[in-house]
Amino acid sequence: MCSAYQGCGRKQDTTTKGKNSMSARRTAALFGVSAILFGGTFVGAKAGLPYFPPLLFVAIRFDIGAVVLASYAVHQLSPADLRPRTTDDILAILSTGIVVIGMTNALIFVGQQYITSGVAAIMMSLNPILTPVFAAFLLHEERLSTRGILGLILGLVGVAFVANPDPSNLTGSIGLPILFAAAVTGAIGAVGIRWTNPTLSSTARTAWGVPLAALLTHGLSVLAGESAAAISLTPIAVLSLAYVGIGSGAVAYLTYFDLIDTVGATRANLLFYLTPVVSTLGGWLLLGETISLVTIGGFMIIFVGFVLLGSGSIAVVVSKRLPRTWKQWTKARMWVDGSTKR
After folding, report:
1. Cβ contacts of residue 79 below 8 Å, gap of 6+?
2. Closest by Cα among 16, 299, 339 to 155
3. Is residue 239 part of a domain?
4. Per-residue DSSP letters for 158-201?
5. Is residue 341 part of a domain?
6. Is residue 320 part of a domain?
7. Is residue 1 part of a domain?
8. Cα 177–179–183 angle (5° rounding)?
9. What local confidence, expressed as pLDDT, does residue 107 receive?
10. 5 falls in which pLDDT band (50, 70, 90)?
11. Domain count for the chain
12. 11: pLDDT confidence band, cut at 50, 70 and 90?
């Protein structure tokens, strides 16, 4: 009986480890897909902006995304799964559509008329620094320590390096405060979703949120006096619109909001440290953009600021996750090398 019981215990342990491994791979996949697609957004936006008014570009992008998401949601979710049931569900939908998707992207597309895709992505990498700051106030998770305040200051210093204002070219600096506002808006919205504690799935919230973002940005476009007559549908315009509409307008938000539900807003927004790499490489390969060493230095300062700001939570995650992961990796490597006794 004892050996049989022990055997069952081993089987349960194996099953649990298998589930944990699958969960970790799923989280890594969500993180990677979100980072790549969001990084490509800055390149797609920069490529398409010469052919569209900026706010109308965003609005049409979300028109396309809304159709794609509606088709996906109808096939994947039941009417009950799509129906908001609580006030928190409605608040989460509003935070998703109006704040995280609508306002954030409106600011990104307007600001990116004046700066490169790489610099725009670096400005958005402030998101992981700003998220725990707002979480401390809205979620009451923790107070900012002296180290956290220092991290926030370093992040702002990094932004100053990225900005590197040139008195002879003040027009180019207009985009930087606009992108900073986008990072603030995105961080507040992500924390707001967690604060509401919704019962709706991330897929349902996104399916509701993207049409709201489309309505908002269409309204902003009208208020700004933009006209569809200014659109020039060249092959590049169509390709860029298809990418930002389907890839980063529908798929990316599905994976991003799923990631927030899985690991929380603070950890999910770490992906914004990968988006500058994607956008800089994409801008260099596809648009012939360059990035200065000062800008790269500013990004590194922003990253150090985040490490200081989030070092406590990072230490907890590492202490809980890394030893087991390292042991599993080492054991697997020994099996591959044939150095483990069978």
Report:
1. none
2. 299
3. yes
4. HHHHHH---GGGGGGGTHHHHHHHHHHHHHHHHHHHHHH--SS-
5. no
6. yes
7. no
8. 115
9. 96
10. very low
11. 1
12. low
